[in-house]
Amino acid sequence: QVQLVESGGGLVQTGDSLMLSCAASERPFISMGWFRQAPGQDRELVAVISWIGSRTGYGDSVKGRFSISRDDAKNMLYLQMNNLKPEDTAVYYCAATRRTGFKPAEIEYWGRGTQVTVSS
Known about the structure:
0% helix; mainly beta; seven-stranded mixed sheet
């Protein structure tokens, strides 16, 4: 059973930075990444990284502010979030899949999520 465990969430102020981490119990996957979900909203893609070639992709609302990376030796995935805004407030989920797509319906494994709250 694959396990993904997020850490690093918390309460910060507008303009602050925060780094989320995700520990994976095994690998490899085709892709790993982060989604977020705010109350009353659909789960949206934040960032994704492919295991081969390390290609990255970002949601439009976080481009230029967030950066995804991984440490293969430690089976870790990271999300560096800079210049945080109140609209970034959400539960952030680590996700992984061995399928070729990265939409929510194509994700095989989810973490339990970590809350990020950005105060104005």
